Amino acid sequence: MDLQNSDAIVFMGSNMAECHPVGFKWPMKAKAKGATLIHVDPRFTRTSAMCDQYVPIRSGTDIAFLGGLVNYILTNKKYFEEYVLSFTNAATLINAGFKDTEENEGFFSGYNPQTRAYDRTTWQYQTTKAPERVPEPPAGGTGQQKEGQETPNLAAPVPGTVKGVNFAALIANRLPGVPLQDKTLTDPNTVFQLLKKHYARYTPEMVEKICGTPRELFIKVADTLIANSGRDKTSAFVYAVGWTQHTTGVQLIRTAGLVQLLLGNIGRPGGGIMALRGHASIQGSTDIASLYNIYPGYLNVPDASKTHDTLLNYILTETQPTSFWSNTPAYVISQLKAWFGDNATADNDYFYDTLPKLTADHSHLPVMVEMSQGKIEGMILTGQNPATSLNSKFQRTAMTKLKWLVVLDFYETESAVFWKNTPDIAAADVQTEVFFLPAAHIAEKDGSMTQTQRTIQYHKKASDPPGDARSDLFFWYDLGLRLKKLYAAGRPGAKNLDGIKNMTLDYAPDATEVAEWVHKDEPSALKIFKEINGYDYKTKVPLNSFANLQADGSTACGAWIYTGMLQNVNGQIVNRGEMLPGKNDGWVSPNWGWAWPANRHQLYNRASADPKGAPWSDKKKYTYWDAAAKTWKNDPGDGIDFTATKDPSTPANPNGIGVAFHDGASPFLLKKDGKGWLFAYEGLSDGPLPTHYEPWESPVKNLLYKQDRNPIAKFYDVPGNKYNEYAGSQFPTVITTYRLTEHHLSGVMTRWLPWLAELMPELFIEISPEFAKEKTIANGDYVRVISERGVTEARALVTKRLRPLMVNGQTLHQVGMPWHWGYQGIATGDIVNNITSFVADPNVSIHEGKAFTCRIEKGRAQA
Amino acid sequence: MSDLRGMFVDTSICTGCKACQVACKEWNEMAPGVPLPMEDEAAVREHRAFTGNSYDNTSHLSATNWRHVKFIEQIGPDPRSSDRSDPRWLMMSDSCKHCVQAGCLEVCPTGALYRTEFGSVDIHQDVCIGCRYCVGACPFGVIAFNNRTGRVNKCILCQDRLEIGMGTACAKACPTSSLVFGTVSELQSMASDRVKLLHSRGQTDAYIYGWDLGNSGKITAGPNKGAAVKDVEVVGGLNVFYLLLDKPEVYGLPAHASLPQRNFVPSAGVALISAAVLGVTGLAAFRRRRMDENAADQGGSNAN
Asked: What are the pLDDT digits (tens) for B130-159?
């Protein structure tokens, strides 16, 4: 919604008008108010059609483009100096041993070629000496101490548990030194100088050579952004999976972060970097643990390779003494209490030891690799369709190695029938036992949805599901109850069962909740909602704020970020997730749903005021310091994302715990130094500064460095996943994949619907007239699209919306394919993912589906 | 009349999402494509077709497509050259215009087509005899014969929704407010403001098709770059009218729409005159023959 306040919006890695058509009304509002809209994309799309500037780019070269913006801003001294000096780590000094990619042929210091990993020692801040640590007993101490107490009391432990442990004291004992700064920004070890050096060669000429973007278009984008940033104006970036699905995906988004920090566009109305999420509630599913390595509320899953052996060590490893994450102990223990209930106590470490620990990357790609090697017995698929997913033949073949497969979905998806309807698999050879369970649709169940702005909305079901279809909640709840029953009396050979036995799972519905339902045993979504929100364990009353969570087992909470969506108002429980229709409460709409955390819509909004707390300008007034009232205020009604009464002139406190460590002009409270990070000394495995590497499969060499590709990208050298020759002549064409408005993802929600199927009935490939002429392909012809993994057949859609690019003096052709089709449903078609591969970003294991290479041939796949 | 209802279609903010097409079919319970029972998946599959015409796989309005989003690619001034300067992709959601002078309604012999209390044109399906006079009488090719029912269909401005105080389904579904439902007079003033705003921003292409609200401009991109455009009122005004960014012909709309039956008076006149002339000539000829005969008789008698 905040996009309506932007003065310029850059859509990049996103086709918002097509893929987020409803949210696109906000940029259109901005445009109606005079904002400039820019689309940087390999294709001229329906988004481009709505924008003032269309800027072509080669797929996968976004860091070169955005790094070019960083260089342009720095070289022309167009950064927002006051913002950069106070709110970012520009002035912070980095270890003198740090070596940049400029000095190291594309590698930062600390690279180990044997392990293909970085040692981050030389990336660290220079700091004052850390305070002396008081010697600690091996496990914990006694006596509850209040936060802020000066002398840690660490005596008399109870061995092996967190019983009696004074977390505050232990955390205080771990305070680091204070980062050193040079506010003149001249020291060669300042982040600012390192940034300048790193991007010096990302000139408009280099951008043109690498990206194929005409330099005058690039400069126009840079000038537009600069003209629409500063005290009176703000610009926003909007991205989606066009940025994430790369071997450099995380760094790519970070580069936009650099641009926005330098221009002062973070934490201010109309600014920011808008991450458009792909599914209706994918934000919610990241918040509530659909990722293998994150528990609800972004708490890390215990990991065998980290110091996570005991609950105390887990907490001490995960708690950051100098950021908002200093509150981690309360979040962790409240979560365990919510999961395991009455018997979970400090004496038994709240059953922490029953949690499985990670031993490796268990994300989608490596799991499928293990499956292909016969290491996985069974799989449950809910809302997932691997038979049409990346390198889909590989995944379909891997599924034949399963003993059992459960598919919960609305329709018989490709994955549900991979064993019988797939052209490349003989049904007789497949031993996998497949169970198909019909699923209820969103309107057929109670539940919630968290959208792209972190706003949760609770919804009640509109009708009973048809036939045997049941909700996902029911499936998992029932499975949990059955497991509990199965293990109740113990099982031969089964160990460590306390976790399963003590799972609370107390979601049995009240009679009134299911009075009008066909199925009386559906779990209560509202009870799950309450568990996520958190409650006082004794009274069972919901808690209003995560500040109420305790580390002593007296509170239970499934996900601390959601605490407060149920509000206890004068004894009445108000579900803030329920829509309050007709509430006209301004553009922030604080009463329309509820945004985590604590109904804060704009994160880091303290940055919307200058270091002294005054609005940067009247036009962009948002959160500001009211000196008379000694409090921060936000007139549109947004939550203050800062300590509400912390005076902006408060100096940093080297002995302060958590955000008390930061001064009053440090808006980024989740960061250890309270600053926006231009230089990320931790958190990323592939470097502190984003660097242009070519996609894993690219027809051209890296023009900036000797190192062509991200040196630590995750690749899978396994049969069936052969990569196209790098920079060779076999696969000279760049290809990108994408979605259309008319279909959703692999099409399970759309290809079965005749009204949508007829709008985009067949798979096609978009190619430029120039390339079509070269290949003698006419509009509507069948073509084969080939990679080392396979072939996909599609109809040619010849259009000038695609264009040949001049890359380093050579003509390069780009093509694009929407990937919605499969062999099931009404609108059937070949699977585009037949030609993609398993290769991924090193930080988050996301695959590279947006930029790879192929060869195009005229004619059908099978004669 | 202040209670006339209609729609303003602002093509400058249409993203071509086709939500209007789907909402139309859903509300009006229409089968996809050619009239087929929706349950028959095989038949639906048979019908589907990739046209290769930009993102338009609907092609034209029909008995089961009362709404159709058109896609016009103008990537550069000349489609045959590689010049891609000033690229545009025009989109327009088309439907029945609910003309003030509705050709279809005027020729309907049974009164099946009728003017509603909202000023729109609806069809009494049970009165339609399938004569198809209306099909030829529509200057926009909107109304279509339905092979399954033997009657005609077109957009009826969601008459059933209007009767209970709701707006049209398509406008309700439009995410960018490109389709706006309302009273025609309000929509006209909205449209006028919108054109003025676009012009003030330098986008001089915009003008209104349907009513003459006094705007004029010049096309800034595409093959018609530089051509002058101005508001145009067609067939007495359109209750569903458009903000366009290029000449009407580019969108497949007639620049000078007229009703075939408007030729009736002149052609009837010609016919009358011809008839008169023929009659007079005939009479004259007859008289002459009579005179000749008389003359002959007389001559004869004279001769006698």
From this structure: 999 999 999 999 999 998 899 999 999 999
Question: Which secondary-structure segment (H or E) carries B266?
Answer: helix B264-303
Q: Could you check whether the bond before residue A597 is cis, i.e. omega within 30 degrees of 0? A: yes
Q: Could B45 and A741 be called an inter-chain contact, meaning their C-beta atoms sit closer than 8 Å?
A: no
CB distance A785 to A854 below 8 Å: yes
Confidence of residue A142 (pLDDT cuts 50, 70, 90): very low
CB atoms within 10 A of CB A222: 22
Gyration radius of chain B over CA positions: 26
pTM score, whole prediction:
0.93
Identify whether the C-beta of residue A834 lies closer than 8 Å to the C-beta of residue A840: no
In this structure, are residues A448 and A459 in contact, taking their beta carbons and an 8 Å threshold?
A: yes
Q: Which residues of A touch B74 (CB under 8 A)?
A: none
Q: State how far the Cα of B157 lies from the Cα of B6, in Å rounded to an integer.
A: 8
CA distance A644 to A659: 12
Tokens of A727: 């920079």
Phi, psi for residue B62 in degrees, rounded to 5: -155, -175
Enter the ipTM. 0.92
Integer Cα distance of B93 and B77 in angstroms: 24
CB atoms within 10 A of CB B299: 11
Average pLDDT of span A126-138: 86
Q: Is A44 on the interface with B (CB under 8 A)?
A: yes
Any B CB within 8 A of A22 CB: yes
Burial class (CB in 10 A: 0-12, 13-18, 19+), A146: exposed
**CB–CB contact A801 B33 (8 Å):** no
Chain A: closest CA distance from residue B80 (Å): 9
Chain B nearest-CA residue for A22: B175
d(CA A329, CA A554): 13
Summarize pLDDT for A494-549 with one digit per residue, the tens. Answer: 888 999 999 999 999 999 999 999 999 999 999 999 999 999 999 999 999 999 99
Distance CA(A388)–CA(A371), nearest Å, equals 16
* CA separation for the pair B53, B71 (Å, rounded): 8
A447 to chain B nearest CA, in Å?
Answer: 24
CB of A216 within 8 Å of any CB in chain B?
no
DSSP-derived letter for residue A748 is: T
- Given a contact cutoff of 8 angstroms between Cβ atoms, the answer to whether A210 and A64 are in contact is yes
Nearest to B52 among A34, A797, A826 (CB): A797
**Closest C-alpha to B208, from B168, B249, B238:** B238
| Closest chain A CA to residue B71 | A46
- CB A579 within 8 Å of CB A457: yes
